[in-house]
Fold this protein.
Amino acid sequence: METKDILQKVRKIEIKTRRLSDHIFSGEYHTSFKGKGMSFSEVRQYQYGDDIRAIDWNVTARYNEPFVKVFEEERELTLMLMVDISGSQDFGSTNDFKRDIVTEIAATLAFSATTNNDKIGLILFSDQIELFIPPKKGKSHILRIIRELIQFKPKSNQTNIGQALEYLSKVMKKKAIVFVLSDFMTKDYDRVLRIAAKRHDVTGIKVYDKREKELTNIGYVLMQDAETNETMYVNTSDAQVRNAYRDHYEDLENYFTSSFTKSGAGVIKTRTDESYVKKLLAYFKAR
């Protein structure tokens, strides 16, 4: 993809996702994720209904009338986006690939966070850490994240979510809001997820395609594994083959749901042909 095309795509995603974050998500995001605590802001004259426990007795004595302390939420937080860029993300049976939806969701979350003056960081992973962008503020920083989500070419097509979560624990010592965006077509990450979820506010966003859930009966089909590049003919007319395929998918989905739920982490699932906007809003409102 040429630089001009990349910039046009970045701009297109910015316009769409910024509109969503400004008009829909920023308020929900703010109320869903709390700050670090309360800090002193100012003193003002006592008003009817104020909590008498907030009276500043030193100032009250100085001016011979009651004044109260005003506190505000220490709002600044850090949002970490952990994005799976393995080979399976380049699949889609509708207008969008999984990678496209993941990019839009990540951009929407990033703009929502920056509206609330939070820092945003990015981890791109396959079965290795492909790219780490430390948390920062600012529009130019967000646009860089979107650009990397669009154009970055991974060294590997395979997936290791556990390794990515271990890396998160190494680089993020303070509590962060963490969104893991993947199709979660793998296992063996529940242990490190539990560790990460104790320190951070973690949510897994599973983006999948309807054709991944079950095989359509259309006879023999040449299929290729997007992560290993292995090809083989599959007899989709065989009921046992279709059942085994469905059972394998459901096993991975149940592992994802149970691993995140047992760890105290959040779970969002959205298909490529569904509105991720409704899924995110429902999740934020339920928190």
Notes: The mean pLDDT is 88. The chain has eight helices and ten strands. The longest strand covers residues 38-45. The radius of gyration is 23 Å.
